[in-house]
Amino acid sequence: MERVTSFVERIANWRRAIFVIAGLVFAVGGAGYQQVVFEPSVLTYFDERSPALRDFRTLEDRFGRSNEVVFVIHVEDGDVLAPPIVAGIRDLRRRLAEIPGVHEVRSVLDLTPPGEPIDARKAEDLASALDRVIDPADPAIRPFLSEDRSVTAVAAIIRRTIDDGERVGVLASEARAVAAAVRPALPGAEVVLTGRIMIQDAFQQEGRNELSGPVGLQLLLIPVLLFVVFRSLAATVALMAVVYVATVATLGTLGWLGVPLNGISSAAPAVLLALAVATGVHLVLAWQTALREGQAHFGAVVVALWRNGAAVCLSALTTAASFLCLNLAAAPPFRQLGNVVAFGLLLTLILCFTLLPALLLSIPASTAPHRVSVESALAWFGSMVTRHAIGLAALCGLVIAGALYGVTQLNYDDRFTHYFDESYEIRRATDLFEEKLTGTTILAISVPAKEDGSATAAAHLDRVQAFAAWLEAKGGVRRVVTQLTARAQDFATRMVDPQARHSRVEVVLSDRTSAQTLAFADRIRAEATQRFGAGVIVTGMPILTARMSLESARTMLIATALALVAISGLLVVSVRSFKLGLVSLVPNVLPVLVAFGLWGVWIGDVSFAATVVAALTFGIVVDDTVHILLRYRYARSRGDSPREAVISSLRSVGLAVLVTTIVIGAGFSVYATSGFLVNQHFSILATLTMAAALVADLIFLPPLLVLADREP
Prior knowledge:
Layout: H1 2-13, H2 15-33, H3 51-63, E1 67-75, H4 83-97, E2 104-106, H5 123-133, E3 151-158, H6 165-182, E4 189-194, H7 196-230, H8 233-257, H9 268-292, H10 297-324, H11 332-352, H12 355-360, H13 371-387, H14 389-408, E5 411-412, H15 425-436, E6 441-448, H16 458-472, E7 477-481, E8 502-509, H17 514-532, E9 537-539, H18 541-575, H19 578-602, E10 605-606, H20 613-637, H21 642-669, H22 677-708
Parallel strand pairs: 5-10
Antiparallel strand pairs: 1-3, 1-4, 2-3, 6-8, 6-9, 7-8
């Protein structure tokens, strides 16, 4: 107590300096925040060291890369080759060709027989010519015309590499402006956009939306919740000041370092806001309790730090450790999320022991007498659950068994085109393209020419065509494109490398799961190697996402185990009891099992985002367990029985446990309605985990403590 008193005296003496430093940190952080940028490339989701990404880049380097904007035109119960629609398509082609950076425009009009330039012909003549030459059942025209003639596509090709976020945004905006301009010329038609440029822009825009929308919602909800609990505007402002400084300084650091955010790491501010509040709320509640017990203003701050300082430190460190375990994640954005939140938590911890005490010493006293009835109710609840210890322990076992069953029903599947829900135009356009046209599950294969020839030699071409025939015979293959079958109007890049040493073969598949895609890719690789020898590459975005999903599941299993061992070790040391440390595993592991079990029963499929939830939330759910265990240990050290210690613990920290769980749960839940399904799945699973953690800490932990710590 003397050391804490001396520490608070120093805080009191240096209050003004602390306020000035905090203000400077906030100002510098705010300036850096204005410089935060967003990474538009979808390749940022994949590890640069991944062999799958190296293959993907090798293929692009070998055959070139096309960035494209694809306009998908859909006429419900109509004909896209009707003269008015054909006239609109011609106008669209002309407008797209005028966009700076557009190298080429391809459309169904390119299929008309040679003759007078397209722009010089009448729309009726173009429509008539297309009617004569097009067979809707011909798979070779499928990239541009659906079999029922209700959908067509127009592609603007930008051949040079464009990953700059600003340029991607400009191209996407220009494409949307063109779409708006031509819609009146396409009567009864829906015009939606997809393609690599639009997908990159969607990821970039989603990052900005996730940074502003959910965080703004939190900034409205959390202060209201805190005011209801504290019944003090000054105490609410004091805690939110700590939270704002920590969050803005963390984001500002990214801005000053030039580290871009992405669709996943843009969730860091919302997560950090909730965790920062949960870190500081224990100290504010303890300060109010000490005031209610008769402590003077200065003494109340001392008591708050003395009673809760160790638990707050341990909680923050265990949570930071769980986020740092995300460095084992297969997807770099999750590593960034983990590092950003861990840094912000450590900064929050520093502020909770400097800025927050300084503010508490400066604001009016607030005893919050309304909480007495809540604390009494929690004490009664603790008495009730300890009276039924054996029954609740048995129920806990049944819950674990049911959760394990649900976990067995999980299926990890990732489809990159499904990362956005149907509310996004990019998803609707991509689904329409998948259903009606050529599909978006495309595998690209690079096969080497034999040493005795080149990729244009007759013998090599025969082998390529024989390989294509083998592919076409496989179930689920919608189309195969080779250097002989590719037409000028195909979306593909060049089909032979400049040195004529390799040929490219593209396979368009019907909708497949990650596991099915990888299995088929392995079959392709084995067959191509047998036909062409070593040096075969089979790649594509579907393979990248599938590999990432599987690798993420593996690495996060290791990360979860690492977090389990590290955090459990900290708990054992903190409570100075191996037996109680083992008991704490139940309320810490159970929430993750329950969340995944419920998802497995109700939903089944989860994206790769789910694989990080276990490692990430383990350090969060342990926070409440830490506070209960340390308070329980203190009560036992002063002579209370296990049952009395449980009741005392819930009376002292039960409200803080409720508040922190609600705040953290709210922090995650704001992404539950996100159209970005990675964040949505992550949010729902994390929120379920927090809800299950509250049940485990208040209903299952007390009886387990009583049973495990029974006196002989």
